[in-house]
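User: quick one
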Amino acid sequence: PDWFHWTRTSFTEASRPFAGLSDVSISEDIPVEGDISVPVGSSRRDEEFSTLDEPVKETILRDLRAVGNKFIHVLYPKRSSALLRDWDLWGPLLLCVTLALLLQGGAADNDDQGGPQFAEVFVIVWFGSIIITLNSKLLGGTISFFQSLCVLGYCIMPLTVAMIVCRLVLLGSSGTVSFAVRLIVVTASFGWSTFASTAFLADSQPPNRKALVVYPVFLFYFVIGWMVLTFSPSQ
Amino acid sequence: MASANDPFQFKEFEEAGSLLEANRDAVTISIQDEDVKSDKQRKAGANGYEEDPLTDDDSTQLLSGQKESAPFWTFEYYQKFFDVETHHVKERIIGSVLPWPGKNFIHVYLRRNPDLYGPFWICTTLVFAIAISGNISNFLVHLGKPNYKYTPEFQKVTIAATAIFSYAWLVPLALWGFLLWRGNKIMNLVSYSFMEIVCVYGYSLAIYVPAVVIWILPFEWLRWFSVVVALCLSGSVLVMTFWPTVRDDHPKVMVATMAAIVTLNVLLAVGCKAYFFSKPEPDLPVTKSTPTAGIKIPST
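Assistant: Done. Structure below.
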């Protein structure tokens, strides 16, 4: 209670710098399972629309809107923390599954010289982002584990788009021109992915370690870009 | 409640006193080795004296190199192997690529702060560099063959990862065990920890990344030249580092250890070159003259 704090702080004048410690209390309206940077505002918003009696369609649409909003943030990576604040893994899952499915049906799927299988793409994307996240945490990053996974997953989007473009180009022809077009598209989307993710991730690092965090991200998108570029359909 | 608060305060001051002890130690350490990082350490130590020592608790402890021994299942235990900054990693890579006679890699660059960042990411880079450039070189070799069908050869990544990571971890493990055994038998002043050996092996692989990229070009003399250069550089780093540990040993053991280190290095380099990069075929100039048929990547 308040009177208690009041009397305690007035008793011990010398401990005034530490008096603030006793005032820290977790208010009940902050969800426990969130991350530290969840502002009070988001929970207030949840109270405004009570989700109990709304139609299921609205609930799904709201989540879809949140995912779509994050896609826009990746496409236009200005340094805002919206992608970091409310993380979700729906978008990364969607993008990863789309990419892995599009990489199927490649050249020589039935012999052992083929391209990456569905599971391999899945493992590379998820284990790659987990390792990059652990790396940035070990280097002393201030970003939380799932925030980093969310950012890395959402930033695959340019490469997934590039994969769709590549498949469309490959429908037409598979000659030199087609390869040049695909090379340009994949290079551009690789640069975009790296730029977007570092715009979100690099700020969480001490300045003298930024390059150490950015390099694995670069390698990660480079490998995914390589998989997209070397995809060749079977005939 | 105020009486309950008093012991709390007293405890705080007690901790501050022990912290000053730690800081005093930190300053002596940073005076002893006055090379690269010591500026930062000294600054941190000085801050610890002047300002409230409680605020500098973590940073002084981290920077002074006095690691409290956290148990291995905690996150903090692994964090101390990633306590490097960009310029440290840069210096270490350059130091491993350009070895200098008389410069022991562990003594000059690691200085009791071995990291896992460099070894891990150098190995990962090398794995993908080998797989990707092996694939490109394979494509270039077969460029223009009418019945050649381009495939990404994704399984090369798995094989390269197995080879590189087992070299970078099992060889240091064996070497560490061996040196421990020899160190018990004879009086030896120089001994390395396991992490230091892993770190040296990881960084010694850095030179292979540019070498592997050169192997894309389908000229056999260029490939062998780069193999020899890379082998000399990375082998000399390893030999110069591990020479002091076996110098006082029996000559036979000394020669055998050095030979084993060099042989394993040669085996890795030559094995990778032979397995992942196919030889250019003799009819390459003939196919090169008909590039219009050759550039088709996916065969139809």
